[in-house]
């Protein structure tokens, strides 16, 4: 990435992976201390892919050709933004670990991530995520695909549904949202899980806030607000069938105090956190590429024309037509002079010019060059199909 710092205004990133990979790339950009971040598209290769869904890239990779996906990044996207949130943790020295917690080597004094992109949760769902994390660490060969991961995750969730491991969560937590104490509401509803949500989707495509805006405003990933929801183990399970959580607040800052080691997760990274004081505040806003065939927000600066895609037809384009001279060199000459560029140029033979759209790929170029080779009346080389591109700074050539 550092190589492209000087062309940052023209740069677009395609992240191939899950939400965790997106977070890793953003963290890398943080470490590089770039003055601005390039917009980012996502190829959803993870398990949940909730951020990819939110940005219009879907929950799983499709059979769409890579060339079409790259064209979509240029011509079917709009620039939106993603809020990021800082999570600061300090130990709660007034509540030392009890004897049960002290026996657990898994208790940690800090969270695995300090910046949140998607969500931060406390309680039952983090407990399941932590169990899954331990299972995968112990048996990586057993959980090496998306399907196996989802089956294992679902099984652990079902077990936890009946055990109700964190039915007493409200006894060990104090929550304030924008200075308002939400703890009485948590106790009243006897919640087993608290979710601080930044994007629309959660847990592999569920919509925990629901589709109706209600008394608050419609959730957005770039409004500077977090949605705070509560769940019991039963309502967590019901999410996969269209259920939703209990709306607690929409806020721009959160303070949490815990009085016991409690499972927590940040963007899918779980841990068992010791009693702590936790604050969640706005960190930054980064540009993302949302896939929209009819974009209604900030236009993608790299969009130069409007295209209509059809699976079995050519792409209609109004991009510039460029003329490219085609020069050939023989295989023997190339092998002899490949390290002496000027000598290689002296052996070159120009066979004509091809006209191409400025954004065409090498497949189009190859077919046009092959036609030139086949139609040339006095080519000094046998016009076969086993040739390669040689892309030089001062000339375009193919090796026959």
UniProtKB/TrEMBL annotation:
<dbReference type="Pfam" id="PF00781">
    <property type="entry name" value="DAGK_cat"/>
</dbReference>
<dbReference type="GO" id="GO:0005524">
    <property type="term" value="F:ATP binding"/>
</dbReference>
<dbReference type="Pfam" id="PF23578">
    <property type="entry name" value="DGKI"/>
</dbReference>
<keyword id="KW-0808">Transferase</keyword>
<feature type="domain" description="DAGKc">
    <location>
        <begin position="1"/>
        <end position="91"/>
    </location>
</feature>
<dbReference type="InterPro" id="IPR037607">
    <property type="entry name" value="DGK"/>
</dbReference>
<dbReference type="InterPro" id="IPR017438">
    <property type="entry name" value="ATP-NAD_kinase_N"/>
</dbReference>
<dbReference type="GO" id="GO:0005886">
    <property type="term" value="C:plasma membrane"/>
</dbReference>
<dbReference type="InterPro" id="IPR000756">
    <property type="entry name" value="Diacylglycerol_kin_accessory"/>
</dbReference>
<dbReference type="InterPro" id="IPR001206">
    <property type="entry name" value="Diacylglycerol_kinase_cat_dom"/>
</dbReference>
<keyword id="KW-0547">Nucleotide-binding</keyword>
<dbReference type="InterPro" id="IPR056383">
    <property type="entry name" value="DGKI-like_dom"/>
</dbReference>
<comment type="similarity">
    <text>Belongs to the eukaryotic diacylglycerol kinase family.</text>
</comment>
<protein>
    <recommendedName>
        <fullName>Diacylglycerol kinase</fullName>
        <ecNumber>2.7.1.107</ecNumber>
    </recommendedName>
</protein>
<dbReference type="GO" id="GO:0007200">
    <property type="term" value="P:phospholipase C-activating G protein-coupled receptor signaling pathway"/>
</dbReference>
<keyword id="KW-0418">Kinase</keyword>
<dbReference type="GO" id="GO:0004143">
    <property type="term" value="F:ATP-dependent diacylglycerol kinase activity"/>
</dbReference>
<dbReference type="Pfam" id="PF00609">
    <property type="entry name" value="DAGK_acc"/>
</dbReference>
<dbReference type="InterPro" id="IPR016064">
    <property type="entry name" value="NAD/diacylglycerol_kinase_sf"/>
</dbReference>
<keyword id="KW-0067">ATP-binding</keyword>
């Amino acid at each position: 990435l550092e190589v492209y710092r000087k062309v940052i205004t023209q740069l677009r990133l395609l992240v191939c992976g899950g939400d965790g990979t997106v977070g890793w790339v953003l963290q890398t950009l943080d470490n590089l201390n770039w003055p601005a971040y390039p917009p980012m598209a996502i190829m959803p290769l993870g398990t949940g892919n909730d951020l990819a869904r939110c940005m219009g890239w879907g929950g799983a990779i499709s059979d769409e050709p890579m060339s079409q996906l790259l064209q979509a990044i240029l011509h079917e996207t709009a620039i939106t933004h993603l809020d990021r949130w800082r999570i600061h943790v300090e130990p709660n020295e007034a509540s030392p670990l009890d004897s049960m917690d002290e026996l657990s080597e898994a208790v940690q004094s800090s969270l695995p991530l300090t910046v949140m992109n998607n969500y931060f949760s406390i309680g039952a769902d983090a407990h399941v995520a932590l169990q899954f994390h331990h299972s995968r660490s112990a048996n990586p060969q057993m959980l090496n695909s998306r399907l196996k991961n989802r089956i294992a995750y679902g099984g652990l969730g079902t077990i936890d549904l009946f055990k109700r491991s964190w039915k007493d969560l409200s006894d060990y937590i104090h929550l304030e949202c924008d200075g308002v104490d939400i703890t009485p509401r948590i106790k009243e509803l006897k919640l087993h899980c608290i979710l601080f949500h930044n994007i629309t989707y959660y847990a592999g495509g569920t919509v925990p806030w629901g589709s109706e805006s209600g008394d608050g405003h419609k959730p957005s990933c770039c409004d500077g607000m977090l949605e705070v929801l509560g769940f019991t183990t039963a309502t967590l399970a019901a999410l996969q069938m269209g259920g939703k959580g209990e709306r607690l607040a929409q806020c721009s800052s959160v303070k949490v105090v815990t009085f016991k080691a409690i499972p927590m997760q940040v963007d899918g990274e779980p841990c068992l956190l010791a009693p702590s004081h936790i604050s969640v505040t706005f960190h930054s806003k980064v540009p993302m590429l949302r896939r929209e065939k009819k974009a209604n927000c900030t236009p993608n600066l790299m969009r130069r024309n409007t295209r209509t895609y059809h699976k079995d037809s050519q792409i209609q384009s109004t991009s510039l037509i460029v003329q490219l001279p085609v020069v050939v060199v023989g295989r023997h000459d190339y092998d002899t002079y490949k390290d002496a560029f000027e000598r290689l140029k002296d052996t070159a033979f120009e066979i004509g010019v091809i006209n191409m759209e400025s954004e065409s790929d090498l497949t189009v170029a190859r077919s046009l060059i092959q036609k030139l080779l086949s139609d040339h009346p006095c080519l000094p080389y046998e016009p076969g199909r086993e040739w390669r591109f040689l892309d030089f700074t001062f000339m375009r050539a193919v090796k026959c």
